[in-house]
Design brief:
This protein is mainly α. It has two domains: about 1-90, no CATH class; about 90-124. The protein has five helices and two strands, in the order ααββααα. β1 and β2 (about 65) form a beta hairpin. It is elongated.
Length: about 120
Amino acid sequence: MKATTEKGYRGKIQRACRSVGTYKDEFEPLIRRLAEMYARRDQLQQLYQEHGADPMVKQKGTGNIIKNPILDEQDRLSRLILEMEKELGLTPAALRRVNTAAMEAKKEADDPLTAAILSFRQGA
């Protein structure tokens, strides 16, 4: 299986954002950073496989058995990736929040009476 490049990931992220309606040009720096993280996570997986895919390794110097540091870094990247995906509305919960907010804003703009009532409630 051919590894995806940063450019390939960037395109996939852009398409995903467009398909759910959350893409904005202002998000490009975040999209580039997310693509870098996906590519880095792939590199770590390849490195892990090349070094025997052992989840536990001996710590240099002490000889203690510890969790493979490659796995720690993969876990860290996975958490950061998830946070960035949330920012872009690419998780179900984040998308629901984004769509709900967009629908409420549209509803307010479409109905002047509702907008006036909401405005009055916020001022009270």
